[in-house]
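Ticket #4471: complex job returned nothing on first submit. Input attached below:
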Amino acid sequence: MRLLLAALALLGASVAAQAQETWALPDGKAYIATSEPAPEVRPEGHPVWPISARLSEPTDRYSHDVLGGIPRWGALSVTALACADCRNGYTGGGLRLPEDLVFEDTGARLWDVTGDGIPEIVVVESHVQKGARLTAYHLRDGKLRRLASTGFIGQANRWLAPLGVGDFNGDGRPDIAYVDRPHLARQVVIVTQQGNRLVEVARVAGFTNHRIGQPFISGGVRDCGAGGEAIVATADWSQLVALRLDQGKAEARSLGAFRGPADFTRALHC
Ligand SMILES: [Ca+2]
Ligand SMILES: [Ca+2]
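Support reply: We reran it on our side without changes. The output follows.
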């Protein structure tokens, strides 16, 4: 069965030009591919520029299922525009996780988390005993390598749901927002990349962006001119909320009653 997740993504996933397709086949060939348009003008120096990322090799070695039947995945591969003098113009890389890790996600995202404009690849990966963490990968020296991660949540079957990227603390560098345990702790976490770590900048409880069994992640990040704002639901799904940081303190503003996923889409467009 071939499922198109693009429609679901339109119902409230992060705002981005990224398109996503899912093939859920029982024969082991399932994958999720995410892509974004190549830059219209190649930047100075023609850096390697990721344009699509793909999760593949579905696995049952981690039985946690919160994503409505979307499998856990064992492999990640990336296609990128290559250097100007490469023969065919494309390059890429891939990796297969060790047996105690899986990708547990609705897709790998092409987000710039370092602030140089070039996308990294952001994905949720889960350890069979320690639960989920958020990881950013990048292509370096012709290989797909881990750039930075959060710590693991610390317990199996505990998951997190990414929201988006924006500058929440006003330092000019991108930060990533996600919801830690959207069905349990329901905490929005803002992290920023420092070396090989995604370091926590802020954490605020009482919000969520996913219900158990949904094959998509809701909410996202917008910037309407005053910095990053996370668009989430209150923990009881009664209100739509814009969450920002003011001098490091979280400030939540209600955007009205939450009626359905389309409310996220509207809110994400300023
Ligand atoms: Ca980057
Ligand atoms: Ca920042």
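The pocket of calcium ion (ligand 1) is lined by residues 112, 114, 116, 118, 120 (CB under 6 Å). Closing as resolved unless it happens again.
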